[in-house]
Amino acid sequence: MGSKHFVQLLPLDQSQQYISFLLIVSGLLLRWLTSLHPYSGQGKPPMFGDYEAQRHWMEITRHLPVSTWYQNTTDNDLLYWGLDYPPLTAYHSLLCGYVAEYFVPDGVKLFTSHGHESYQHKYFMRLCVLVSDVLIYIPALLCFFSRTENSSSQRVSQTFVLSVALIYPGLILIDHGHFQFNCISLGLFIWACHHLHLNNPVCTAILFSLSVNYKQMELYHALPFFFYYLGHVYHTTDIRLLLTLGSSVLITFILVWLPFLSVSQLGHVMYRLFPIYRGLFEDKVANFWCSANVVYKFTIYMTNDQMALMCLCTTLLAILPSCVSVFRKPNVVKFQQSLIVVSLGFFLFSFHVHEKSILLVSTPVILYLPRDPFPCVWFLFISTFSMFDLYIKDNLVLPSLTLMALYYTIIHDFARKSRLVYYIFLGSLLGCVLLMCIALGVAPPPRYQHLFSLFIATYSFGHFALFFVYFYCKQLDFKFKYIKLL
Length: 486
Known about the structure:
By secondary structure, this protein is mostly helical. The chain is 70% helix and 0% strand. Helix 5 runs antiparallel to helix 7 (158-167) and helix 16 runs antiparallel to helix 17 (332-349).
């Protein structure tokens, strides 16, 4: 008897548990298979890449005093992958450093371990990310999508939602291929959303504060949380809620930042967390400034401070209506829509955005998927494609193409709502395929080495701009016939 028939014979709850278990195993297997491939900076001295950055943070947090973690000293050269994430990341690096010292001591020896590459160490580092996924991110997804009130409003099966959430290629390729720990900050963010839906404001405040204290880019999500609860306080005049939330956030931040609360220490840390000196953007990224820079050279005619102020004003103007909307109607649907709009607004218009920051938009899109599946799965495909230049640099072309092909087999039926939508969707994906083929098979002109990277970024930006308008229309309840097609 086939597995499909076996599932049909099970009671509904057992059948769902069986399928969920298979999906989790499949997701973990795909993560581990991806981790067998190269990582960021492998074999590329002298700086290597993000893998080396994470290893180096384990080294310095394990061997240097806390007071020097964010300071440039003779033992801590900040030009060589100095810590530039909040203290919770440093504490996590310290924990991993202790474990590494027991299993792979050569990988965390001060100075002598720079650029350390061995099979045992790679196995250890990959396992650290996988364990983080298993302990934080995957349980958060399962709990969020298991809520009764969420499943009752689903327009698609929970099996489909979990399959998309667990097999989303973007996060797998960045965390388990390129090498990062986004699963921790994003997992804490999902846990915060879960408790917001359960009306547990204290847990929400603590968990979201922890996510911000792991990666400062979680500030992309801060304003929807802020205006959601501010709206509740305003409409209910519940001052106790305001005091509870404020004290929860304050206490969490104080506990995390306790070793760095002196004026000098705070200055060092904040300088590392918000590096204005790095410029408008580094690599080609699918946001407005990178695409517009082709026409007007912002990086030539404006200083970093001027560009930072310009980006701040533009971003705030772009997201303000979304924040006002969730303040006026602080309900779950508006909150989820605002998370997408605000985080995408930050990605498109804020200062010094990395291509990997699109994961901060993809995660709210995953959470919103049961309510509006087709635009969400389309967005998730484009978000994965937008980082294709990074996959080429990291020698992750094979796993990226495999995961995108697998993802397409899962989502393609959702495009068959109407002939118009199907042709638009198919044309969009064919454009991605064409650009990937060009990037892989055609040498760029010697004078324009980054031409194809710019094509990928600009093509993705065009999609993200349209998605920004679409989700804004959904949140603000703008209704017109083309929106209904989706």
